[in-house]
Design a protein that fits this description.
seven-stranded parallel sheet, globular
Length: 245
């Protein structure tokens, strides 16, 4: 008598900053690829609406990457209700470009706390789950993690930091966790909306209008990377718009 095997459990992907942009697009792409997705963001209304648009394997949990307690509570829920995370996508980030000066001190701290320390906070609380499930850690960096220019000093510092931290983790966590770094160029998201320096904001918006690619373009690449056979790790992917120098 033949026995029909039980269907394999769906892999669980946790995505920070899932309320818009690359995070939202990645949630859609991974859900389409057959993963259950956990949407983490501060804006509860947005992630709840997104979860409603996806199938019943999407879950919204309000959390702030700069608040370790909220992340710890989210990780506990993922462990108890879904069996733990197979994939963590550290996507939450802000890009507050401006010339370096004391007037931008608050923006500098926000970028460091969100872009770099936020990714570390999320990784700390989900790391045991990723290890247990031989999972994937995906860190969103930037072209700015390779090249710096006037006006992006602190943003570039957070992304260079992300790259260095990720490379160290790649070696440290091998072979239990696959570590991947995604480095987009100009992508049409809400990033430019939050720039507080008027001249820099105008210049960035003009550049993005001319050449930016879509969040979906990046999400497709993330989905491709995390669905490769376990024997394959795509450690680093640099993605520029074709028109970006």
């Amino acid at each position: 008598m033949s026995v029909t095997p039980e269907p394999a459990a769906r892999r669980v992907a946790v995505i920070t900053g899932a309320s818009s942009g690359i995070g939202e697009a990645t949630a859609r792409a991974l859900a389409s690829a057959g993963l259950s997705v956990v949407l983490l963001a501060r804006r509860a209304d947005r992630i709840q609406a997104l979860a409603g648009q996806l199938d019943d394997s999407a879950f919204a949990i309000q959390a702030d990457v700069t608040d370790p307690d909220s992340l710890s509570a989210a990780a506990t829920r993922v462990e108890s209700e879904m069996g733990g995370a197979d994939v963590l996508v550290n996507n939450a980030g802000i890009m507050l470009l401006a010339p370096f000066n004391p007037a931008q001190h608050a923006d500098h701290r926000r970028m460091i706390e969100t872009n770099l320390l936020g990714a570390m906070n999320a990784t700390e609380v989900f790391l045991d789950q990723l290890r247990a499930k031989r999972g994937d850690l995906v860190n969103l960096s930037s072209v700015a993690g390779r090249t710096a220019r006037p006006g992006n000093a602190v943003y570039a510092a957070t992304k260079w930091g992300m790259n260095g931290w990720s490379e160290s983790l790649r070696q440290e966590l091998h072979p239990d966790v696959r570590v991947m770094v995604i480095e987009p160029g100009a992508v049409a998201t809400e990033l430019t909306d939050h720039i507080t320096h008027p001249e820099t904001k105008q210049a960035a918006e003009q550049m993005y209008e001319q050449m930016a690619i879509t969040a979906g373009d990046i999400a497709e690449i993330i989905a491709f990377a995390v669905t490769r056979p376990r024997r394959v790790t795509i450690n680093e992917i640099l993605i520029r718009p074709t028109a970006q120098p």
